[in-house]
Each structure stands twice: as C-alpha cells, then as structure tokens.
Amino acid sequence: MHISEVIYFLYLTYFTYPVDYMELENDTQISEFLLLGFLEEPELQPFIFGLFLCMYLVTILGNLLIILAISSDSHLHTPMYFFLANLSFVDICFTSTTIPKMLVNIQTQRKAITYESCIMQMFFFILFAGLDNFLLTVMAYDRFVAICHPLHYTATMNPGLCSLLLLVSWIMSALHSLLQTLMVLQLSFCTVLEIPHFFCELRQMIQLACSDTFLNNMVMYFAALLLGGAPLAGITYSYAKIVSSVCRISSVQGKYKAFSTCASHLSVVLLFYCTSLGVYLSSAATQNSHSGAVASVMYTVVTPMLNPFVYSLRNKDIKEAINVFFRGKP
After folding, report:
1. How far apart are the C-alpha atoms of 265 and 139, rounded to whole Å?
2. Fewer Cβ in 10 A, N or C end of the chain?
3. Per-residue pLDDT tens over the stretch 19-42
C-alpha cells in the first residue's frame, strides 16, 4: 500500500500538476475576442450597417472638408483654426479606429477580433479620445486669451506656443494610452471572451480578466479623474472668465461679437462632455452592457459627425471658406 501511494503521489506531482499548469498558461494565450456589439439582432443588421456606414462617411467627409477649407484659406491660418483642423483630423482617426471593424463584422457576420487587433484598437481609441479631450481644452484656452486678453493675443498665442501645446497633447495622450495598454497586456483572461460592445473598450477588457485587476482599476479611475477632470476644470474656468469679460462689455453688438467667436467651440465642448459623462453615468447606474454600447455611440460616432456641422453652421468664416473652396474665387 505504501508503494502504491508513493507512485500515485509521484504521478500527481510530475504529470497531473504540470498539465494543469500548462492549461492555465494556454488560457492566457488568447487568440481572439468576440465583439457582440449590435450583432445579436440579425433582422436589424442591414439597417445598422447602412446607418453606421452613412454616419462614418459623413464624419470623414465633413471633417476632411473642414481641414481642406482651413488649409486653403490664408485668412484662417490662425491659432483657433489651427487647433480646429487638428481636432477634425483626430475625429477622423477616432471614428476610423472602431467603425470600419464593426462594419466588416456586420457584413461578414463574424464577431471575432484577434487579440493583437483588439489591443491595438484599444490603444488608438484611448489615444484619440485623449487627444480630443486635450484639444478641446487648448481651444478653450485660446478663446480665453482672445477675449480676456485681446491686446496680448498675438504675442501669447504665437506659432511656437501653439505647436508646443499640440505636441504636449500628443505626448500626454500617447503616454496614457501606452500605460493602459501595457497594464492590460499583463492580465490573464478566462475562457469567457465576449465583449458586449462594438469595440475593445478598456473597462470591458479589464472586466474579462480572471487575474487581479485592482491596480488596473485604480490606474483607470485615477487617469479618468486626472486627465478628464483637470481639462474639464480648465475649460470651466476659461469660460467662467470669458462670460465675466463679455458681461463687462458695454455695447450689445460687442457682446454678441465676443460670444460668437466661442459659441461653436462651446457647443462642441458641451456635446462631447455631456455625452461622455451621460454614457458612463447611465452605464454605471443600469449595469446593462448592451445599453452602454448603444449609449457610447453618442460620443464615439455622433459627436465627431456633428462637429463639422456645428462649426460650419455657426461660424461665418468657415462657411465663407467652404464656399470659396467649392466655387473658387469669392
């Protein structure tokens, strides 16, 4: 009996345990995830495909038109329109990170996305979302200087400072995206690899992990508070000072002219932050992943699509530049 017990113990130690360990190792070598998104309702697939394709094309063409109009009109080579052109470029990249893959999945009726593609999609989504956030903050600072300190505007918002602000925005967004991506790469994933979204979102990726995610959650929420709250506070402060300065203007025409220079940007800021905060507050309250995916369309698709309309309809200079671009000389 003792010999058989020793043999059985050796069998468990050198054969069973290593096999179980290898199986656990294989579980972390994920080959692909499943993006559920809007693929759960087959009868709506043609409508959803057509809707998102139209919104994507409008987003690309609208933002591209803003870039071309600004670059072709020398009167718009100012800091405000320099940042607007960069915002339009980022919005094109932002939507191109998620929508094409979703359209391909709908067309091919496949939900799969490879592990590498999912990580890359998450990296670029965080990058361009961060750039949107920082550019809106920089544009608010530009309007603050233009309205509150008009005599020093040219000296303050010089080409060197504008380039530096843009470079810092790219560096901070890239570092944040790289940090979050590297931390996700350290996670081990279980057998359930279904993401109830139409793209690889950071929070959904962390929730799928079967290893300890405490540090990931701490970094994610701290970054959201720091990189989201600080810019929002800066924008709020800038517009508080702008409103205070505008109210001190005696003439009604002067007030209207001062406010009209920042009305378009304020509309985009409200659209971006209200939809973003609304999505995360509603998803946190309902705990419904599918409704969260539907709501996230507001800031991932609808907001970049509406930005060109907001600027072209509410900005006289942009409308004139677009007319010149299509008709030639004014």
Report:
1. 8
2. N
3. 333 333 334 456 789 888 776 667
Task: Round to whole Å and give the CA distance between 18 and 22.
Answer: 6
Helix (H) or strand (E) holding 194: strand 194-195
- 72 and 321 Cβ atoms separated by less than 8 Å: yes
> What predicted TM-score, i.e. pTM, was given to this entire model?
0.85
Which of 203, 146, 136, 142 minimizes the C-alpha distance to 173? Answer: 136
**CA 321 vs CA 68, 87, 304: distances in Å:** 9, 17, 20
What is the C-alpha separation between 135 and 83, in angstroms, rounded? 7
Among residues 63, 304, 218, which one has the least CA distance to residue 296?
304
Q: What single letter denotes the amino acid at residue 7?
A: I
Residue with tokens 């959803």: 48
What does R_g of the chain's alpha carbons equal in angstroms? 25
102 CB contacts (<8 Å, ≥6 apart)?
Answer: 35, 37, 38, 52, 198, 199
Cβ atoms 291, 283 nearer than 8 A: yes
- pLDDT tens, 199-249? 998 988 898 888 889 999 999 989 988 988 899 999 999 999 988 888 887
Instruction: State the CB neighbour count (10 A cutoff) for residue 207.
Output: 14
Query: What stretch of H or E contains 293?
Result: helix 289-297
H or E segment at 35? strand 32-35
**Edge-to-edge strands of the sheet including 112-114?**
112-114, 32-35, 194-195
Q: Which residue has tokens 């359930």? A: 192
